[in-house]
Amino acid sequence: MTMYREKRFEEIKRLLTERKELSIEDIMQAVGVSRDTARRDVVALAESGAGRRTRGGIVSLTFGHTVPSYSERLKLFSKEKTAMAKQALALIRPGGVYFIDDSTTLLKLSQSIDVPVTIYTHSLDNAIALAVKSEVTLRVLGGKLNHHGRFFFEAATLEQLRRIAFDAAFIGATALSQEGVYFPYADDAAVKATLAAAARQVIVVSETQKFQIQAPYRGFTLAAIDTFITERALTVQQQAWFAGTTKILVAH
């Protein structure tokens, strides 16, 4: 039993190094234990300094101190992200005009669209995914490529966005707090602020872990969000931060 427990801990720590975050369900599936055992393992690992305990599992000690690159986030394509993308897809209507942000979850949305719509994006990866879809009218916003974030930007983009009444803007979030939605780049935050003012519907698609991350530039307040799609129920405190008119959808 002792050896089994040690080997189990080794596997959990290996996965934590690789993924940066593990839910109780991830641990149950990875090492074949019950929910109660997974919770006890999380407590023991956190007490030993292997990670930091969260409400739903455990995160690495460096999680939240830096914003992972797009390529790093792409490796963490979980079933939760797929479920959130499916929830977002249900909000797209044929003939609509939409903006899709540079988010790994929203890349999955771009890959899933199969109806005639017009899509604007500044994301290199979304553009590649949508370029093969003959039913989609694709508009790629120009400018210089940010290699870390994999999006294009130029100042003229902001004026272009102001002239478009999007049916909805699907926006990811680097970080979330009571004060709003934050991003690591000032120019990207400016794009999101412009979209929040121009779009008929602002739909933010983000995991609850983003409440634990910090980023320097605010795009818009939580009050600007019409629909918030996430992977698990918010805490009472988190839910209170949103406007009463914001629809909160938990993807399954």
Automatic annotation (TrEMBL):
GO terms of molecular function: DNA binding
Superkingdom as given in the UniProt entry: Bacteria
InterPro entries in alphabetical order: Carb_Metab_HTH_regulators, DeoR-like_C, DeoR_HTH, NagB/RpiA_transferase-like, Tscrpt_reg_HTH_DeoR_CS, WH-like_DNA-bd_sf, WH_DNA-bd_sf
Sorted UniProt keywords: DNA-binding, Transcription, Transcription regulation
PANTHER family: HTH-TYPE TRANSCRIPTIONAL REGULATOR SRLR-RELATED (PTHR30363), HTH-TYPE TRANSCRIPTIONAL REPRESSOR GLCR (PTHR30363:SF51)
Gene3D superfamilies registered for this protein in UniProt: Winged helix-like DNA-binding domain superfamily/Winged helix DNA-binding domain
Record domain HTH deoR-type: where: 5-60
Record carries keyword DNA-binding: yes
Record's keyword annotation contains Ubl conjugation: no
Pfam families in the record: DeoRC, HTH_DeoR
Name of the protein in question: DeoR/GlpR family DNA-binding transcription regulator
